[in-house]
């Protein structure tokens, strides 16, 4: 992802007014785009997992389904960043949404005719939508004033949550659409998702004008001498080197104990959350739950992940990252114990998933804040990108492993395994107080 430089100092009042006007327009477009697009993206964690089990008739494949969409998000993140750096946000965002829409259209065919290969290609491509929604938060900061960057970024993330909560419930309107079109419930749900994803691409392609990133670049060209171009472009060149991201993280981890602890927190939260969330729809279905119950459960889980984020941030600032991470570990533990002890009651599983989301929020938000504060200025962008890549990769691995584990054992065993994965972080938090935490 291209680094976003600070707003230009000493800008003329007219330029500042024009910049603010473009920023307001950009935010409106991004907000509308994000809500509609993430409705389509949100279908993958619930209905996509159920569809994989139905098409392949194997619990193990349900984990692979989540892996496919997660890998799609990870693989396309860097290309989308490169496209944005070269052609602007509008091209990158609209193109990404349309690729995701094509993936969802493939899933319509996979659901209707039980096609395995289109199933996994479709899930892989719909994962591009996740990468697009993540890039959108950076688009919100391109022209934002320094004191408003965090607010702009948070607003785009927050409204995206609305779409992600609605997405898992597309089985409900899918039943209505299926009754009219003759499609199965799953096929109709992915048809709705495809329309939402394509519409998000149209919205950003038509109305994200002028492009915020290209506008910023043009302003820099006017304000800075051409001889400074190489310096200004250096961060973008570095991020285009794919190996540099993970390498920067590894270097930082060898020398920076606080950053190492924070990265362990981020990765652990992702592994625990994804492993359980991936297989919960399958488990609920085996307990006699309907598609509607699955959708509501995943939506409540996602609310748990994001609804308290502002409060979690305040707690981290007020009481420290370590205390916040410790609180998240305790909430995680409560969730996993419920899953291990009461796996046969759907109300208990719903409660467990809500707590799982809240625990993830505490550990992830505090861990991410500590990581950003701990890494050096020179390696911050690359290290953060590498941390995201590593988190996505290990989350996909957890999803892959969760399917066979559930097929060979039970939901209780899966919950106990997640407790085991949580233990190293709990030990580090209890016994080794990290600096700057």
Produce a short descriptive summary.
84% of the residues lie in helices and 0% in strands. It has 437 residues and is an all-alpha fold.
Topology:
Blueprint: H1 13-41, H2 44-56, H3 59-87, H4 89-113, H5 116-126, H6 128-139, H7 149-166, H8 171-181, H9 185-207, H10 212-223, H11 229-240, H12 242-255, H13 257-286, H14 291-306, H15 309-319, H16 321-341, H17 346-374, H18 380-408, H19 411-431
Helix pairs in contact: 1-6, 1-7, 1-9, 2-3, 2-5, 2-13, 3-4, 3-5, 3-6, 3-13, 3-18, 4-5, 4-6, 4-9, 6-7, 7-14, 8-9, 12-13, 12-18, 13-14, 13-17, 13-18, 13-19, 14-17, 15-16, 15-17, 16-17, 16-19
User: Overall 3D geometry?
Assistant: globular
Give the ordered list of helices and strands.
Answer: HHHHHHHHHHHHHHHHHHH
Number of helix segments? Answer: 19
Strand-residue fraction? Answer: under 5%
What is the count of β-strands?
A: 0
Average the pLDDT over all residues and give the rounded result.
80
In the CATH hierarchy, the third-tier topology of the largest domain is known as Growth Hormone, Chain: A
- The CATH class of the largest domain is Mainly Alpha
Q: Could you estimate the helical fraction of the residues in percent?
A: over 70%
Corresponding CATH architecture of the largest domain = Up-down Bundle
Task: Write down the domain tally.
Answer: 2
| Structural class by helix and strand composition | mainly alpha
Distance from first to last alpha carbon: 27 Å
Residue runs with pLDDT of under 50 for 5 or more positions:
1-10, 226-246
Main β sheet profile: none
Radius of gyration: 22 Å
User: At the fourth CATH level, what is the homologous superfamily of the largest domain?
Assistant: MFS general substrate transporter like domains
């Amino acid at each position: 992802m291209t680094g976003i430089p600070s707003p230009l100092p000493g800008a003329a009042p007219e330029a500042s007014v024009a910049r603010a006007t473009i920023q307001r327009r950009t935010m409106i477009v991004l907000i509308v785009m994000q809500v509609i697009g993430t409705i389509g993206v949100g279908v993958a964690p619930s209905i996509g997992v159920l569809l994989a089990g139905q098409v392949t008739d194997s619990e193990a494949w349900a984990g692979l389904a989540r892996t496919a969409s997660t890998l799609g998000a990870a693989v396309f993140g860097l290309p989308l960043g490169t496209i944005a750096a070269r052609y602007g946000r509008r091209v990158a965002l609209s193109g990404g949404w349309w690729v995701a829409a094509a993936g969802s259209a493939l899933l319509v065919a996979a659901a209707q005719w039980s096609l395995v290969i289109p199933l996994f290609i479709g899930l892989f491509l719909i994962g591009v939508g996740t990468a697009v929604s993540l890039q959108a938060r950076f688009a919100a900061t391109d022209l934002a004033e320094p004191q408003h960057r965090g607010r702009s970024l948070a607003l785009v993330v927050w409204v995206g949550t609305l779409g992600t909560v609605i997405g898992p419930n597309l089985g409900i309107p899918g039943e209505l659409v299926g009754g009219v079109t003759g499609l199965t419930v799953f096929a109709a749900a992915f048809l709705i998702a495809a329309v939402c994803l394509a519409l998000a691409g149209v919205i950003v392609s038509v109305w994200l004008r002028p492009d915020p990133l290209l506008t910023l670049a043009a302003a820099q060209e006017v304000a800075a001498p051409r001889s400074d171009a190489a310096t200004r472009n250096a961060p973008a060149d570095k991020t285009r080197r794919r190996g540099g991201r993970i390498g920067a993280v590894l270097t930082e981890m060898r020398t920076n104990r606080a950053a190492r602890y924070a990265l362990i927190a981020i990765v652990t939260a992702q592994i625990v959350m994804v492993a359980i969330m991936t297989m919960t729809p399958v488990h609920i279905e085996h307990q006699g739950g309907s598609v509607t119950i699955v959708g509501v459960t995943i939506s409540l889980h996602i609310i748990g992940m994001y609804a308290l984020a502002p409060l979690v941030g305040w707690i981290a600032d007020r009481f420290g990252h370590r205390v916040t991470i410790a609180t998240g570990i305790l909430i995680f533990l409560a969730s996993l114990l419920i899953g291990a002890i009461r796996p046969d009651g759907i109300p208990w599983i719903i409660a467990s998933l809500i707590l799982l989301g809240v625990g993830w929020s505490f550990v992830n938000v505090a861990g991410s804040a500590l990581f950003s504060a701990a890494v050096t200025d020179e390696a911050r962008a690359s290290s953060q990108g590498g941390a995201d890549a590593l988190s996505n990769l290990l989350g996909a691995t957890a999803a892959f492993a969760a399917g066979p584990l559930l097929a060979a054992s039970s939901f209780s065993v899966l919950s106990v395994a997640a407790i085991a994965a949580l233990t190293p972080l709990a030990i580090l938090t209890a016994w080794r107080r990290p600096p700057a935490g």
